[in-house]
Specification:
The complex is a heterodimer of chains A (416) and B (184).
Chain A (H helix, E strand, L loop, with lengths): L4 H10 L8 E5 L2 E4 L4 H10 L11 E3 L10 H17 L11 H7 L8 E4 L13 E4 L2 H10 L1 E5 L2 E8 L8 H12 L7 E6 L1 H5 L2 H9 L8 E3 L4 H7 L20 E6 L6 E3 L7 E3 L10 E5 H4 L2 H11 L9 E5 L3 H9 L2 H8 L2 E2 L20 E4 L15 E4 L2 H10 L9
Parallel strand pairs in A: 2-3, 2-4, 4-5, 7-8, 7-10, 8-9, 13-14, 13-16, 14-15, 16-17
Antiparallel strand pairs in A: 1-6, 11-12
Helix pairs in contact in A: 2-5, 6-8, 11-13, 11-14
Chain B lengths: L22 E5 L6 H4 L10 H5 L9 H5 L5 E4 L11 H8 L4 E4 L4 H10 L2 E4 L11 E5 L4 E4 L2 E4 L5 H8 L3 H6 L10
Parallel strand pairs in B: 1-2, 2-3, 3-4
Antiparallel strand pairs in B: 1-5, 5-6, 6-7
Helix pairs in contact in B: 4-5
The chains are: A alpha/beta (416), B alpha/beta (184).
Chain lengths: 416, 184
Amino acid sequence: MTATIVEKIFSRKCGSEIRAGEVVMAPLDGAMIHDITGPLAIQKFYEMGGKKVFDPKRVIMLFDHQIPADSIEAANNHVYMRKFAKEQDIHNYDINEGVCHQVTIEKGRAAPGEIVVGADSHTCMYGAAGAFATGIGSTDMGFALKFGALYFKVPETIRAEVSGKFQKRVGAKDLILAIAADIGADGATYKAIEFAGKTVHKLDMAGRMTLCNMAIEMGGKAGIVAPDKVTWEYMKGRRKMKPFELDSDTGAKFAEKRTYDVSSLEPQVAVPHNVDTGVPISKVAGTHIDQVFIGSCTNGRFEDMAEAAEVLGKKKFNPKIRVIIIPASRDEYLRTLKAGLIEKFVKAGALVEAPCCGPCMGGAFGLIAPGEVSLSTSNRNFKGRQGSTDGKVYLCSPATAAASAITGEITDPREV
Amino acid sequence: MAAKKTVPVRKVVVETNPVSKNARVWKFGDDIDTDAIIPGRFLIINNPDELAKHAFEGTRDEFAKKVKAGDVIVGGRNFGCGSSREHAPLALVGAGVKVVVARSFARIFFRNSINVGVLPIVCPDADTIADGAKITLKIKDGCIEADGKKYAIEPVPAFMQGIIDAGGLVEYARNIKEIPVCTR
């Protein structure tokens, strides 16, 4: 009997054949909470009569949305969660490590074949590590913390098969913006998106994370890339695991298959105020911008920083705009630092902040005023996402962000 | 507002058959995201009543001022897309909204709503219901009436209905110590 990767993950965990559409109470390998959704989840855990979490070693806790605490309320939320971590013997990464999704993968807390939940919608990013991972609300997380299991309707899979070679300065972010525009903001609701094809397997882990991260922007329950040599190489030193075969069978039943050829793909920009609005950059080149943000769980890795730095070259950022650069984690920050890129960014005029969600949180710092325009490598451009509801957010790749930060308007990175 | 360390315990009640007779409809469009329902800067708040003061702030400011308990939100496609923040349906709970009717819902919001006591109802023709319409819910009969016109609604998926019937997920979880996994 043929199966998709997702069906195989559920079947492996349960030791019986499980297919899309079935509702199962599945055991969890990990549960992630952060400073925004964590306090409510803990409250729900207690309301559910929870005394001890199912397994402290499988709970991933850290703060990334409002760090260092930007208000007394945020500080209080942190205190509340630290107390819980101590009481439950949970290792708390606290404010020290960076953005939850990057840290979870980096620390080897999500691995091929595992089922991981997170109280954050971009949890689907762990599919880059070959895990089935999905975002849940705080009440479901309370349940997950108590029982180490959760109800899932095993999703059908949309297979996105990608071929062709990217042009210079075009990459994973441009691809996922194009896929989102094709599938639509709700085109994958209740479904998993499997990214497949030679082009996907040629991507490094950073690129795969960018793809899987944005599955939710199409309503997807999960994004996933079949683990291959690149994945297992990445897992080395993070998890003691023997590589195993995990891929969709030829002939597996997919909800649909879509094919993409990236050979002629232009840099893409998603225009306000929805993510599925990606257009080729030629349509929006010249648009005025006030702020550029390079970072987030979507594009805050060293590879993204290196891409921005390569575009920057020996130039300076336009002094008329604010350029905010935030590596997604301590590790990524250190890699960026050691490569001399932080110095380069700072000398070029950027503000480089410590690892956190930054402006993408829309509540901590880096907010935009009414009438202002932000160009951002993050994942959402909803009205008000980065501050005023009368502001605008455009989404793009790190290369496009860097090129535009030099000129002060949306600019094709191939022309800089 | 004084900072609160803990969230006040509030019993979650998902009504299977909420009665709203001639309630006011607050009409919204497609792709209403959770940032619109409750902007990021208010996520430090965990109390439903406080959250309700900022519901739809910047998107539709009159909502928080004029909404009354029992009012019904009607949306288009993909209502509640975006973040997993439970603060979004909680803000509606605080505003006294027990029911959201939409052409379709985003997955996480749908599940969160049921978990915090808001009943999400799928109505294929929700788009044609007008803002300010008077709405009467006849959920048991599988329909709603807006300005005298009948609209068919879809039943809640069976496994979610099971959770509602158990009194909600918190109530269900409170009464059990262990859960058998891999059951279907």
